[in-house]
Design a protein that fits this description.
Double-stranded beta-helix; alpha+beta; globular; disordered C terminus
Amino acid sequence: MKFEVKGTVLPVLEAVLAPGETVVSTHGDLGWMTPTVSLSQTTQMGTGSRGFMKAAKRVVGGGGLFLTRYSVSATPGTVVFAAKLPGNIVSVEVTPERSYYVHRSGFLCGTEGIEASVALQQKALTGGFFGGMGFFLQHLTGEGLAWLELSGEMFTYDLPAGETIRVHPGHVGAFDETVSFKVSTIPGLANKFFGGNGFFLADLTGPGRVWLQSMSIQMLAAQLAEYMPDNGGGNGGGSSSSGLVDGFIGGVFGN
Protein backbone atom coordinates (compact mmCIF):
# COMPACT_ATOMS: atom_id res chain seq x y z
CA MET A 1 0.00 0.00 0.00
CA LYS A 2 1.38 3.37 -1.01
CA PHE A 3 0.25 6.69 0.43
CA GLU A 4 1.05 10.15 -0.90
CA VAL A 5 -0.15 13.58 0.21
CA LYS A 6 -0.78 15.83 -2.78
CA GLY A 7 -1.74 19.48 -3.04
CA THR A 8 -0.93 22.49 -0.92
CA VAL A 9 -3.67 24.55 0.76
CA LEU A 10 -6.38 21.90 0.48
CA PRO A 11 -4.42 18.65 0.33
CA VAL A 12 -5.63 15.17 -0.51
CA LEU A 13 -4.32 11.76 0.51
CA GLU A 14 -3.87 9.32 -2.36
CA ALA A 15 -3.78 5.63 -1.42
CA VAL A 16 -2.69 3.11 -4.05
CA LEU A 17 -3.93 -0.35 -3.09
CA ALA A 18 -2.52 -3.66 -4.25
CA PRO A 19 -4.78 -6.72 -4.54
CA GLY A 20 -5.95 -7.78 -1.11
CA GLU A 21 -5.20 -4.45 0.58
CA THR A 22 -7.77 -2.32 2.41
CA VAL A 23 -7.92 1.17 3.86
CA VAL A 24 -10.61 2.17 6.36
CA SER A 25 -12.23 5.55 7.01
CA THR A 26 -14.76 6.66 9.62
CA HIS A 27 -15.87 9.80 7.76
CA GLY A 28 -17.37 10.61 4.38
CA ASP A 29 -14.04 11.95 3.13
CA LEU A 30 -13.95 10.16 -0.24
CA GLY A 31 -12.74 12.39 -3.05
CA TRP A 32 -12.41 10.03 -6.02
CA MET A 33 -11.32 6.50 -6.84
CA THR A 34 -10.72 4.08 -9.67
CA PRO A 35 -13.44 1.55 -10.68
CA THR A 36 -11.37 -1.31 -9.30
CA VAL A 37 -11.94 -0.13 -5.72
CA SER A 38 -14.93 -1.65 -3.94
CA LEU A 39 -16.70 -0.16 -0.92
CA SER A 40 -18.28 -1.97 2.02
CA GLN A 41 -19.63 -0.99 5.43
CA THR A 42 -18.70 -2.63 8.71
CA THR A 43 -18.62 -1.95 12.43
CA GLN A 44 -15.28 -3.82 12.41
CA MET A 45 -16.21 -5.76 15.55
CA GLY A 46 -19.18 -7.78 14.21
CA THR A 47 -22.73 -7.76 15.59
CA GLY A 48 -22.08 -8.68 19.22
CA SER A 49 -22.61 -6.31 22.12
CA ARG A 50 -18.90 -5.64 22.39
CA GLY A 51 -18.77 -4.59 18.77
CA PHE A 52 -21.81 -2.35 19.14
CA MET A 53 -20.37 -0.61 22.18
CA LYS A 54 -17.10 0.07 20.40
CA ALA A 55 -19.00 1.45 17.43
CA ALA A 56 -21.10 3.63 19.74
CA LYS A 57 -17.97 4.98 21.41
CA ARG A 58 -16.57 5.76 17.98
CA VAL A 59 -19.68 7.83 17.18
CA VAL A 60 -19.34 9.81 20.40
CA GLY A 61 -15.70 10.45 19.58
CA GLY A 62 -16.57 12.04 16.25
CA GLY A 63 -16.57 9.06 13.87
CA GLY A 64 -19.41 7.12 12.30
CA LEU A 65 -21.35 4.10 13.49
CA PHE A 66 -20.10 2.24 10.43
CA LEU A 67 -16.64 2.18 8.92
CA THR A 68 -16.14 2.35 5.17
CA ARG A 69 -13.66 -0.20 3.81
CA TYR A 70 -12.01 0.54 0.47
CA SER A 71 -10.56 -2.66 -1.02
CA VAL A 72 -9.29 -4.12 -4.27
CA SER A 73 -9.33 -7.80 -5.21
CA ALA A 74 -7.58 -8.71 -8.49
CA THR A 75 -6.49 -5.37 -9.95
CA PRO A 76 -4.66 -2.50 -8.17
CA GLY A 77 -6.71 0.60 -7.49
CA THR A 78 -6.48 4.13 -6.17
CA VAL A 79 -8.67 5.96 -3.66
CA VAL A 80 -8.26 9.62 -2.70
CA PHE A 81 -9.42 11.27 0.52
CA ALA A 82 -9.90 15.04 0.56
CA ALA A 83 -9.28 17.40 3.47
CA LYS A 84 -12.38 19.18 4.77
CA LEU A 85 -10.56 22.45 5.53
CA PRO A 86 -7.30 24.10 4.48
CA GLY A 87 -4.51 22.47 6.42
CA ASN A 88 -2.23 19.46 6.61
CA ILE A 89 -2.48 15.69 6.38
CA VAL A 90 0.09 13.79 8.45
CA SER A 91 0.74 10.13 9.21
CA VAL A 92 1.40 8.48 12.56
CA GLU A 93 2.40 4.91 13.27
CA VAL A 94 0.15 3.33 15.88
CA THR A 95 1.52 0.41 17.90
CA PRO A 96 0.44 -1.41 21.06
CA GLU A 97 3.08 0.68 22.85
CA ARG A 98 2.18 4.01 21.25
CA SER A 99 -1.31 5.38 20.81
CA TYR A 100 -2.63 8.90 20.19
CA TYR A 101 -5.35 11.32 21.15
CA VAL A 102 -6.75 13.32 18.21
CA HIS A 103 -9.31 16.11 17.92
CA ARG A 104 -12.75 14.71 17.18
CA SER A 105 -12.68 15.20 13.38
CA GLY A 106 -8.95 14.61 12.95
CA PHE A 107 -8.82 10.91 12.00
CA LEU A 108 -8.93 10.77 8.20
CA CYS A 109 -8.25 7.09 7.49
CA GLY A 110 -6.00 4.20 8.40
CA THR A 111 -5.09 0.60 7.83
CA GLU A 112 -7.37 -2.14 9.16
CA GLY A 113 -5.47 -2.57 12.42
CA ILE A 114 -6.43 0.88 13.71
CA GLU A 115 -9.11 1.30 16.40
CA ALA A 116 -10.74 4.74 16.74
CA SER A 117 -12.82 5.29 19.87
CA VAL A 118 -13.79 8.02 22.29
CA ALA A 119 -11.28 9.02 24.94
CA LEU A 120 -12.86 7.92 28.22
CA GLN A 121 -9.93 8.67 30.49
CA GLN A 122 -10.87 11.38 32.99
CA LYS A 123 -8.10 13.69 31.84
CA ALA A 124 -9.46 13.73 28.28
CA LEU A 125 -13.16 13.48 29.11
CA THR A 126 -13.09 16.49 31.42
CA GLY A 127 -11.18 18.47 28.84
CA GLY A 128 -13.72 17.54 26.18
CA PHE A 129 -16.70 18.76 28.18
CA PHE A 130 -15.22 21.95 29.55
CA GLY A 131 -12.45 22.84 27.11
CA GLY A 132 -14.46 23.45 23.94
CA MET A 133 -12.90 20.57 21.99
CA GLY A 134 -16.15 19.28 20.55
CA PHE A 135 -16.86 17.45 23.85
CA PHE A 136 -14.58 14.50 23.15
CA LEU A 137 -11.25 13.44 21.74
CA GLN A 138 -10.67 10.39 19.58
CA HIS A 139 -8.30 7.71 20.87
CA LEU A 140 -6.36 5.83 18.20
CA THR A 141 -5.08 2.42 19.32
CA GLY A 142 -4.18 -0.89 17.71
CA GLU A 143 -1.42 -1.40 15.17
CA GLY A 144 -1.00 0.17 11.76
CA LEU A 145 -0.73 3.49 9.97
CA ALA A 146 -3.18 6.32 10.61
CA TRP A 147 -3.59 9.60 8.76
CA LEU A 148 -4.65 12.75 10.59
CA GLU A 149 -6.17 15.97 9.30
CA LEU A 150 -5.05 19.19 11.02
CA SER A 151 -6.50 22.60 10.14
CA GLY A 152 -4.36 25.57 9.12
CA GLU A 153 -0.62 25.45 9.69
CA MET A 154 0.79 22.63 11.78
CA PHE A 155 3.32 22.95 14.59
CA THR A 156 4.93 20.05 16.48
CA TYR A 157 6.57 20.12 19.90
CA ASP A 158 8.54 17.30 21.50
CA LEU A 159 7.99 17.92 25.18
CA PRO A 160 10.50 16.48 27.66
CA ALA A 161 9.21 15.01 30.89
CA GLY A 162 7.65 17.67 33.08
CA GLU A 163 7.54 20.43 30.44
CA THR A 164 4.10 21.98 29.88
CA ILE A 165 2.58 23.99 27.07
CA ARG A 166 -0.76 25.76 27.59
CA VAL A 167 -2.97 25.75 24.50
CA HIS A 168 -6.41 27.05 23.57
CA PRO A 169 -8.37 23.77 23.27
CA GLY A 170 -9.42 24.43 19.68
CA HIS A 171 -5.77 24.48 18.58
CA VAL A 172 -4.94 21.04 19.97
CA GLY A 173 -4.58 18.72 16.98
CA ALA A 174 -3.14 15.52 18.45
CA PHE A 175 -0.73 14.26 21.08
CA ASP A 176 0.99 11.09 22.25
CA GLU A 177 -0.77 9.02 24.88
CA THR A 178 2.23 9.64 27.15
CA VAL A 179 1.40 13.36 27.24
CA SER A 180 -0.58 14.37 30.31
CA PHE A 181 -3.71 16.38 29.45
CA LYS A 182 -5.72 18.47 31.87
CA VAL A 183 -7.91 21.54 31.75
CA SER A 184 -7.06 24.76 33.55
CA THR A 185 -8.87 28.09 33.64
CA ILE A 186 -7.63 31.38 32.27
CA PRO A 187 -6.59 33.46 35.29
CA GLY A 188 -8.54 36.59 36.17
CA LEU A 189 -12.26 37.36 35.88
CA ALA A 190 -11.66 40.15 33.37
CA ASN A 191 -9.61 37.82 31.18
CA LYS A 192 -12.36 35.18 31.33
CA PHE A 193 -15.30 37.42 30.50
CA PHE A 194 -13.77 40.12 28.30
CA GLY A 195 -10.67 38.54 26.77
CA GLY A 196 -12.60 36.66 24.08
CA ASN A 197 -10.48 33.53 24.54
CA GLY A 198 -12.99 31.46 26.48
CA PHE A 199 -12.60 30.25 30.04
CA PHE A 200 -10.29 27.27 29.60
CA LEU A 201 -6.85 26.21 28.45
CA ALA A 202 -5.47 22.74 27.79
CA ASP A 203 -2.31 21.98 29.76
CA LEU A 204 -0.20 19.43 27.86
CA THR A 205 2.73 18.04 29.83
CA GLY A 206 5.49 15.82 28.48
CA PRO A 207 7.02 13.47 27.78
CA GLY A 208 5.74 13.10 24.23
CA ARG A 209 4.95 14.83 20.97
CA VAL A 210 2.18 17.39 20.49
CA TRP A 211 0.70 18.47 17.16
CA LEU A 212 -0.96 21.92 17.22
CA GLN A 213 -3.15 23.44 14.49
CA SER A 214 -3.26 27.17 13.81
CA MET A 215 -6.90 27.11 12.64
CA SER A 216 -9.49 26.44 15.29
CA ILE A 217 -12.59 24.99 13.62
CA GLN A 218 -14.77 26.50 16.34
CA MET A 219 -13.28 29.96 15.86
CA LEU A 220 -13.67 29.68 12.09
CA ALA A 221 -17.35 28.83 12.53
CA ALA A 222 -17.81 31.76 14.90
CA GLN A 223 -16.28 34.15 12.38
CA LEU A 224 -18.45 32.84 9.54
CA ALA A 225 -21.62 32.99 11.67
CA GLU A 226 -21.70 36.77 11.30
CA TYR A 227 -22.31 36.38 7.57
CA MET A 228 -24.85 33.57 7.78
CA PRO A 229 -28.59 34.31 7.58
CA ASP A 230 -30.45 34.19 10.87
CA ASN A 231 -33.96 32.86 11.48
CA GLY A 232 -35.42 36.22 10.54
CA GLY A 233 -33.86 36.16 7.10
CA GLY A 234 -31.26 38.82 7.80
CA ASN A 235 -27.55 38.46 8.22
CA GLY A 236 -26.04 36.66 11.17
CA GLY A 237 -25.01 39.80 12.99
CA GLY A 238 -28.08 39.76 15.23
CA SER A 239 -29.01 42.33 17.83
CA SER A 240 -26.65 43.71 20.39
CA SER A 241 -28.39 41.77 23.16
CA SER A 242 -28.07 38.46 21.35
CA GLY A 243 -24.44 39.30 20.69
CA LEU A 244 -23.84 39.72 24.41
CA VAL A 245 -25.52 36.40 25.13
CA ASP A 246 -23.54 34.65 22.42
CA GLY A 247 -20.34 36.18 23.76
CA PHE A 248 -21.11 34.96 27.26
CA ILE A 249 -21.91 31.44 26.08
CA GLY A 250 -18.78 31.38 23.97
CA GLY A 251 -16.76 32.47 26.97
CA VAL A 252 -18.13 29.70 29.15
CA PHE A 253 -17.90 26.82 26.72
CA GLY A 254 -14.90 27.87 24.64
CA ASN A 255 -14.66 28.94 21.01
